[in-house]
TrEMBL record:
Entry protein name: Uracil-DNA glycosylase
The keyword S-adenosyl-L-methionine is assigned to this record: no
Coiled coil ranges: none
Keyword Cell membrane on entry: no
Positions of the Uracil-DNA glycosylase-like domain: 28-207
One of the GO biological process terms: DNA repair
Source organism per UniProt: Limosilactobacillus frumenti DSM 13145
Gene3D superfamilies: Uracil-DNA glycosylase-like domain (3.40.470.10)
Alphabetic keyword roster: 4Fe-4S, DNA damage, DNA repair, Hydrolase, Iron, Iron-sulfur, Metal-binding
InterPro entries, sorted: UDG_Type-4/5, Uracil-DNA_glycosylase-like, Uracil-DNA_glycosylase-like_sf
GO molecular function, one term: 4 iron, 4 sulfur cluster binding
Pfam families recorded: UDG
Amino acid sequence: MVVINYPHDLLAEVRQRVAGRKLTGFTPGQGLLHPDLMLVGEAPGRHEEVHNIPFSGASGKELMKMVASIGYSRQTIYITSVVRQRPYSVKRVKDRQSGKIITKKPNRTPTKGEVLAFAKLFDWELGQVDPKIIVPLGNTALQRLLGPQANIGELHGQLITRPIQKATADGQGYQWTTDSYKLFPMYHPAAVLYRRKLEPTVKDDWRRLGTLLQHK
Ligand code: URA
């Protein structure tokens, strides 16, 4: 199992592009190289920022249950997300106990520009990891790979073999790869935490992925 070591030039480029944005920490992707599965989330949350382990917070616990249900673990897959720093917003709220106005920095969804700023780093990581199947978790990861029209509600729970988006050489946009990749999109585990009704669907999707891997 490895914690990925990103090239300095790509890191420097990202740092320059995101300067001044509300992004903090840096959680590298980690796991097995050349695995059956590469799980791709959105961005680290507060728990990940502190512990530096992708998907180690509340969503991560949900996710790991699903991973275990098909016989895999953190050690036998690779886990990352399309943005490697925690996006936050700044909120001034009244503290319940003291009544004082305090500043909070809750997690937020990364913007399209932030996803693009990390695109070359992600492309490099995908090349190193070289998984059999990419599992985009939720719309942010799915749209990064399959474009803005892709929708998790339509594409979850099925194997898709298609070219994916990669950053252009100047890093200002995306282009389609000439090769096709295998993807199996899933709902983001946080969606299940907010909408318990989704749980049977998500369990069924993971069961399908498990069956597919048994016949690979
Ligand atoms: N959500 C993500 O997309 N990635 C994490 O690592 C944690 C929460």
